Amino acid sequence: MITELGHFALILALFVAIVQSTVPLIGAARRHVGWMSVGRSCALVGFALTALAMLSLMHAYVTSDFTVINVVENSHTDKPLLYQITGVWGNHEGSMLLWVFMLSLCAAAVALFSNNLPPALRARVLAVQGMIAVGFLLFILLTSNPFLRTFPPPPNGNGLNPVLQDPGLAFHPPFLYLGYVGFSVAFAFAVAALIEGRVDAAWARWVRPWTLASWCALTIGIAMGSWWAYYTLGWGGWWFWDPVENASFMPWLVGTALIHSSIVVEKRDTLKSWTILLAIITFSLSLVGTFLVRSGVLTSVHAFATDPQRGTFILLLLVVAIGGSLTLYAIRAPALKGGGVFAPISREGALVLNNVLLSCGCATVFLGTLYPLFLDAMGGPKLSVGFPFFNRTFAPMMVPMIIAVGIGPMLAWKRGDILGALQRLWVAYIATGIVLLIAFYVTRGGPVLAVLGFGLSAWLFAAVLTELAERLRLFRVPLRDSGRRAVHLPRAAYGMTLAHLGLAVSVAGFSASAFDKEAIEILKPGGSLDIAGYHLTLEHMDRLPGPNYTADDASIQVMRDGKVITTMHPQRRFFPLQKETTSETAIRTNLLADLYVALGDTDNAGSWTVRVYWKPLVPWIWMGAVIMALGGMVSLSDRRWRVGVASRAGRRMPQAIPAAGE
User: 431 vs 54, 103, 404, 460, CA distance in Å?
Assistant: First the structure.
């Protein structure tokens, strides 16, 4: 009964979305206040219905209702409760339901927190989100229904992919999807602005918090996915340029450009058309990522769907959503004239350079990801694009961007003094020189590019702190005055500082990967190996029972300078239901380096393959991502973004804004 209730809720949500996508749009065109307000009600009702559907499917998993095909294929009574819950989105049908749930959550958030928006703009934004919801609800109900029944029910289920039976499944997909789908709000604002024919500072300030919130969620989601792969797969890697990884990285790159571009729209009333295009492309790339993962064109632990019908349906959605929005852009964008003029050497110029490099970087990733797929589809040879291509094309473009990130905030709006800005960055030069000298000495001069990466990180870190000191006039005025300035400095300024510092920390972590050390030995109990000053001894092996697996547990003693530091316990877990074996790594970290141990196969004669990695500064990669997301959240807490211009503009604007041409 509860399953049928969830299915019925999804059908009702479809009809509500149809109303949401039409009535408010007509009301905005006719300036009918009552019809425009329908959008808010539909958004809230749609959220309640999709939440009910989500809870219904979750109930089926928790109670092991094996009359539901989706539960049979992805659950088992012996599976721990955590994985019964998270297994809801550990499959194609459930993950698409999570996608629609996140979409309805965003629409409800717009409905609840948009009191300062002009009613016509709010109605159009909610209508566009309703259109997106119609497409994906149709996709679920017609091709990916998670509530289908089977009779008679089997005594038990097939279980979940062992790789997905990890706490990472509880957090990584929800954050990733919240980031993906969150950009639909910026997309809806862009399409609504094109319909109205108006983009101004108020619009930029309305759209920026939604973009920033989505960017924070996507940053956390990507970082969690990287960390999950790092400690789960046993290869010691944290990024593989896998097409599914790239699918989430591309909207992050363009979303970062969108955040910076919207600043120029707000401050200088220019780059309007470009900002609208970025908002469309960001969400379009989220849809492309959905197509890659759900269409069956990729074979991956992330790619659940293999039905060509589903891929065709998503491709049709892409054509309608992306093609329709770009066609509207081509028609209406020429009317969006920018009012601000600026010199190439200015803060606006630095932000434009930031946008160009991020967009080119995204284009490079896009080409490297999709070209092999297009070539294969056209009957050409199979190609594999990996580290060599991306390292030689993407990484060089990010170098000038990072340099510009250090200089840009030191420039004035409209017209800047590049020589003056460079002179004020003398501390950054000294810090960069010291770090380069130390790195060359410690590493004995190599690899040169990695050492230069440390210098780049030091440059950005010192430049960001120098810019903050300039804002506070530190060491130029009495300390009490600097403290007063610090108290009254907008939170957005602190958020920018944190985000850029986080980038510097991550760059150091990326660069240090060139100095990884690896040791692989076949050991019997009592055998040992050495790596990076550590002495590891395999003491004994134990067979341990798990909830739905059995584990071969290695007890490995770690010594340094003749002293026992710790005992590590990597495992090989065998899942009898799926007849699959997974690796459970053991990691010891001091935040400056990781000692990473993975247990390999056995020769059934008492010997085991043991892989050990020493990875300096690798925790800084995820620390930097967390700092970046924290910076975004600090900026998001700035009341000026949520209230300032929006409330003033709301008082100035009429209750309804006629569409362009009325």
Answer: 52, 45, 17, 10
Check: CB of residue 475 under 8 Å from CB of residue 469. yes
Cis preceding linkage at 388, omega within 30? no
Phi/psi of residue 344, each to 5°?
A: -60, -40
DSSP-assigned beta bridge partners for residue 560: 534, 563
Residues 6+ apart with CB under 8 A from 532: 517, 593, 595, 614
User: Please, where in the chain does CATH 2.60.98 lie?
Assistant: 517-617
- 544 SS3 class: strand
CATH number of 517-617: 2.60.98
**Partners of 518 in the β-ladder:** 613
Q: Running DSSP on this structure, what letter comes out for residue 411? A: S
Cα 395 to Cα 246: distance, rounded to the nearest angstrom: 14
Averaged pLDDT in 10-residue chunks for the chain of 662 residues: 94 97 95 94 97 97 95 91 91 93 96 89 96 95 94 91 88 93 95 90 88 96 94 88 90 96 88 94 91 65 60 87 95 80 91 95 93 78 82 93 95 91 94 95 87 96 96 91 92 95 97 95 95 96 93 96 95 92 94 96 90 97 97 87 45 38 33
The shares of helix, strand and coil residues in the chain, as percent rounded to the nearest 5, are 65, 10, 25
pTM for this model (two decimals): 0.92
In angstroms, the CA 175 to CA 220 distance is 7
* Cα atoms in the 13 Å half-sphere on the side-chain side of 377: 8
User: Which DSSP letter does residue 262 get?
Assistant: H
The DSSP bridge pattern shows strands 571-575 and 580-584 to be antiparallel
**In 3D, which of 614, 598, 593 has the Cα closest to residue 556?**
598
Give SS3 for 239: coil
Place of tokens 């211009």: 645
Q: How many Cα atoms are found within 13 Å in the side-chain-facing hemisphere of 501?
A: 18
